[in-house]
Amino acid sequence: MANKKIVIVGGVGGGASAAARARRLDESAEITMYEKGPNVSFSNCSLPYHLSGLIPDADSIVMKTPEQFHKQYNINAEVNSEVIDVDAQQKTVQVKDVNTGEIRTSAYDELVLSPGANPIMPKSIKGIDKSNVFSVRNVVDIKALQAYLTDNQVSDVAVIGGGFIGLEVVENIAQTGKKLTLVEAADHVLGTIDDDFAQLVHKNLYDNGVQVILNDGLAEISDQHITLTSGKEIKAQAVVMAIGVSPDTTLAKNAGCRIGVTGGIEVNQQFETSIPDIYAVGDAIEVTNMITRQKTRLALAFPAQMEARDAVDHMYGRPVQNQGVIGSQVIHLFDLNVASTGLTEAACKQNGFDHRSVTVIPQNRVGVMPDTSPIFLKLVFSYPGGEVLGAQAIGKSGVDKQIDVIATMISMHGNISNLTHLELAYSPWFSTAKNAVNIAALVAENILNGEYQQVSISKVRGLVESGAFIIDAREPNEYAAGHITTSINIPLSQFRQRLDEIPTDKPVYIHCQSSQRSYNMVRALNNLGYTNVTNISGSFLELKQYEYFKDQTTDRKSILTNY
Amino acid sequence: MANKKIVIVGGVGGGASAAARARRLDESAEITMYEKGPNVSFSNCSLPYHLSGLIPDADSIVMKTPEQFHKQYNINAEVNSEVIDVDAQQKTVQVKDVNTGEIRTSAYDELVLSPGANPIMPKSIKGIDKSNVFSVRNVVDIKALQAYLTDNQVSDVAVIGGGFIGLEVVENIAQTGKKLTLVEAADHVLGTIDDDFAQLVHKNLYDNGVQVILNDGLAEISDQHITLTSGKEIKAQAVVMAIGVSPDTTLAKNAGCRIGVTGGIEVNQQFETSIPDIYAVGDAIEVTNMITRQKTRLALAFPAQMEARDAVDHMYGRPVQNQGVIGSQVIHLFDLNVASTGLTEAACKQNGFDHRSVTVIPQNRVGVMPDTSPIFLKLVFSYPGGEVLGAQAIGKSGVDKQIDVIATMISMHGNISNLTHLELAYSPWFSTAKNAVNIAALVAENILNGEYQQVSISKVRGLVESGAFIIDAREPNEYAAGHITTSINIPLSQFRQRLDEIPTDKPVYIHCQSSQRSYNMVRALNNLGYTNVTNISGSFLELKQYEYFKDQTTDRKSILTNY
Questions:
Q1: What are the b/e assignments for A140-155, b being 16+ CB within 10 Å?
Q2: Burial of B175 per CB tally in 10 Å (0-12, 13-18, 19+)
Q3: From the record, what ranges are coiled-coil (chains A, B) (predicted)?
Q4: Contact A453, A533 (CB under 8 A)
Q5: What share of chain B is helix, strand, coil (3-state, %, to 5)?
Q6: Strand A81-87, strand B179-183: pairing
Q7: A319-368, pLDDT tens digit by residue?
Q8: Is B371 on the interface with A (CB under 8 A)?
Q9: Of B27, B366, B426, the CB nearest to A528
């Protein structure tokens, strides 16, 4: 049998994984990987860290050179080589040498498309083609941006788009002392978390000197400033576009491959396109969300690598199952970490899923240990079924762990009842005895059982404005250090002696620092016959963070004192 | 209906949890918690951290005082109150005031036993009752030990028992500059990990100046030294006993409760003992291992808290399911973290479970980021079924996360195939794109599929001694910096041109730094028709650590050069 000729388009995450996997399965295959850029196999997720100098040498982001591919794996990694055409009948591709313009034809038995996605650079924005406008997709991009910032002594940078790449670029450039402005079209950054949790991120950006502009877009770019859709002018000598990516489907369309409803390349359970012997993987394809069963796109490294492996496995007759994705992600942002998995509340609403959520704020480790910090954890679950649907976590430490545990639970179709008793590794050094996920699940179980009522901190401003009866269940010294303006201080340690101060004829709302004391008071009052008592989920700890950014950046009246 | 009288014996993990849960479910219950010591509700797991001064004030380890229990929860927490007798017919307990000796009788409707476990202090050891002998069970113990070390200017401490408490005590005292000796009766510390991984812990202890003595026991304690079973004398002015705990079943036996085969109090699915209206929870009870279905005991904080909650829930007619335990644990030791869950290989053998294991050593985050460090991860799984049975992880960072993910998978009866594609949160800051658990599962899948052969690093010495053909697949500069004495250096980047050096008539063993390059070479050779090629799992990175402690502490000949 003749040696199998495998041609791979794209030499980064998916492409490089496909090539290496093919070699492991078949020593005799002729494997060629064409990459239009000058580098293969680089860690694109690491690119922003060059901007702060954390990764001083941008070339070190390249993990394997074409020479290493050749020597170690006998793989032809051809850089500066753009595949511009596919003849699916003849099973050939046309490859253009990007430097010389020379075009040659190469035959394949199996073709793997892993072209990735391109940063969206709308032509409608005036000045989008100017030399001070950048995107961050590869090593060339990041070197160009870094050189521009340095060579032109740029002092003000605007980053357009508050997704992962945008935020990482903001963080890394901000650390070099420049003045950053982040412009986001939606009402909050990071579509992977809900509005309430996003306020914590806004606060973090604000605290780190970043100007955050929401609900606004980029209209025009000049040399020294940008103009937003609102008309606002922002000083900026350099602009980084990070509003999103669009799947690179030019070649796939050209080959006749079907494109899915989301604009990504359509693939079947084996990552085959609609054209025989052409596979597609990575950021360019359309995937299925495992939870919603809706088509979607997901530009993440791990799925791309696994899709590539699966495609090659199928090429060699191995069983493969494209099970879809749940979407798990984490970002480091100054001294904060933000992680999430599965569905947000917003996504549940969008899909018409009846759901509930709980927010708990345990410490990352036992309180008596030094350097403890709170973990803000939101758990989203179906109602009334209690299936775990998603989670978001924000904190200085340990949030990736909590989210990974919940991602595992979602993948295994776990229920809240599976999380309450889940035995995780505990030592005071690493966590609390009941881990954050256990605590969240126990609260969720209460909600599923209808054991008490809760209200989100996003409703507190409305409660204050409508004159609701709000009890602060903390101790007097905590109350004195800052509280909701209209709240009444009845500590958990005193309420049994002060029941006459708690009305029975109107709704009563209770909070404390992290909802634990207020929860105990709510249960006690319910047991005492109070019928309309509600716990304020997230309590003062989340409320302070939630209100902060808007309090600082608008002229509205704060509902909190002394903070 | 009269108020329910709930009496709880023991005021720490299980006891305090039971009391708080009872109050949440029933505002009118009369809840009394008797604790024979002077404190309730302290974090016993945090005790060792007082010895290093990380927790400067031992009293801060107490999380809630009797006064707080009273004020916040209307719970009577009676300290220095030992329950010495139970009359299950009359439903009363006899309580002795530890200070005055006074005895009173207290009635109960429901009794919860949470007496914990006592440190084992064998009377057969001469001098066990001396004033320089300590155990670590409560705040009184840790204050006494700390005071003794300081007041007597102790310079040498012997810790007997290399379990979690023993190791934490060693670490914390060692940090004050004293000379520590650890004596362990088994051939390695930590029964929760296998021998090969324990060598990494031995190395860590050795590197931190701790004298580690294995396969030996304590025979006699003197003022200035101890004598071991082997006759060896060790300088030590203070001795900490940490060889294990035995469940405190005195009261349960007294009440007529059945004791299980492991010596713990027998309980049913609802944590009821064999005597009506008497529950038992925590370290004193016998539990069932969820994986082996064998009875066992597990002295850990989280299970105790959940058992207590469940017992009270059942008391109030709520559904409860005692599903057993898997055992998840983690310990911080100098600059190393050691975590594990489920079964070790040794436990699999003991239970007659056909199993396989893989060891992988990925970095904790993307290699191009600063401060990366390896995670040694062993995954244990059933053969041929591929059920995830257990895992062990050692590293400077991130091991608790990997183990918690695998613990979740075990709890959900996950298979290796569920781990390969598991979508965890990735950013270069936090992990590699394929997380450590993904990588381990992919290797495990290969083993299940019989795709190649592997051998554990514990076999390498035998291979060297028997003159086996061992290839070092690293680059020449790596080989020069240290290698297996008898190995031949044929780098992955050269082997295709040097096939004539690789014999076909005898077994060939291959390793590299972390098994990734050797794995690729093994697959290629298999594909080229070599039939007896074996990958050395764990490779040089694990081998160095595995051999180190014995190389340093015995006069055997090393099988490694230059290290």
A1: ebbeebbebbeeeebe
A2: middle
A3: none
A4: yes
A5: 30, 25, 45
A6: unpaired
A7: 998 899 999 999 999 999 999 999 999 999 999 999 999 999 999 999 99
A8: no
A9: B27
Same-domain status, A231 and A207 = yes
Q: Which of B504, B507, B539 is nearest to B520 (CA)?
A: B539
- Whether residues A430 and B332 touch (CB distance < 8 A) is answered with yes
Q: Which of B305, B332, B412 comes nearest A427 by C-beta?
A: B332
Q: How many beta-carbon pairs under 8 angstroms link A with B?
A: 243
* Residue A1: predicted pLDDT: 64
A442 and A463 part of one domain: no
Contact A23 B524 (CB under 8 A): yes
- pTM, rounded to two decimals: 0.97
Q: DSSP code of A389?
A: E
Three-class SS of residue A148? Answer: helix
> Are residues A490 and A498 in contact, defined by beta-carbon separation less than 8 angstroms?
yes
Distances (CA, A) of A350 to A167, A196, A298, A359, A458: 25, 17, 18, 20, 19
Reading the block at residue B188, the tokens are: 């390695």
Do the Cβ atoms of B111 and B15 come closer than 8 Å?
no
CB A267 within 8 A of CB A304: no
Q: Is the ipTM of this complex over 0.85?
A: yes
Nearest chain A residue to B330 by CA distance is A425
Q: List, as ranges, residues 209-268 from A with C-beta within 8 Å of B.
A: none
Q: Which residue has the tokens 């877009």?
A: A217
- Cβ–Cβ contact A427 with B under 8 A: yes
What is residue B225's three-state secondary structure? Answer: strand
A37, A182: one domain: no
A462 belongs to a structural domain: yes
Rounded-to-integer distance, Cα A299 and Cα A480, Å = 48
Round to whole Å and give the CA distance between A57 and A60. Answer: 6
Question: What is the pLDDT averaged over residues A275-301?
Answer: 97
Considering the domain architecture, whether residues A475 and A439 belong to the same structural domain is answered as no
User: How large is the average pLDDT for residues B86-96?
Assistant: 98
Q: How many CB atoms lie within 10 A of CB B322?
A: 20
The count of structural domains within chain B is 4
Which residue from A263, A264, A209, A187 is spatially nearest to A550, judged by alpha carbons?
A187
| Contact: B45, A405; criterion CB under 8 Å | no
Which residues numbered 43-102 in A keep a CB inside 8 Å of some CB on B? 43, 45-46, 49, 54-55, 60-61, 63, 68, 71-74
A interface test, pick of B321, B423, B449, B521 with most A CB neighbours within 10 Å? B423
Q: Is the pLDDT of residue A490 over 90?
A: yes
A300, A306, A425: residue with CB nearest B421: A306
- Sorted by sequence, the CB contacts under 8 Å of residue A61 that are 6+ apart come out as A42, A43, A46, A47, A50, A55, A139, A142, B368
Q: In whole angstroms, what is the distance from residue B335 CA to residue B363 CA?
A: 16
Six-digit token pair at A479? Answer: 């109350």
Q: What is the CATH number of the domain that holds B502?
A: 3.40.250.10
B308 and B12 Cβ atoms separated by less than 8 Å: no
Q: What is the pLDDT of residues A508-541, one digit of tens each?
A: 999 999 999 999 999 999 999 999 999 999 999 9
CATH of the domain at B233: 3.50.50.60
> Once rounded to an integer, what is the mean pLDDT over residues B488-507?
97
Of B323, B328, B368, the CB nearest to A424: B328
Is A306 close to B72, i.e. CB distance below 8 A? no
pLDDT at position A493 over 90: yes
- Is B411–A404 a contact, with Cβ atoms under 8 angstroms apart? no
Q: What tokens does A85 get?
A: 């055409």
What pLDDT does residue B563 have?
63
Q: Which domain holds residue B343?
A: 328-451
CA A382 to chain CA mean position, Å: 21
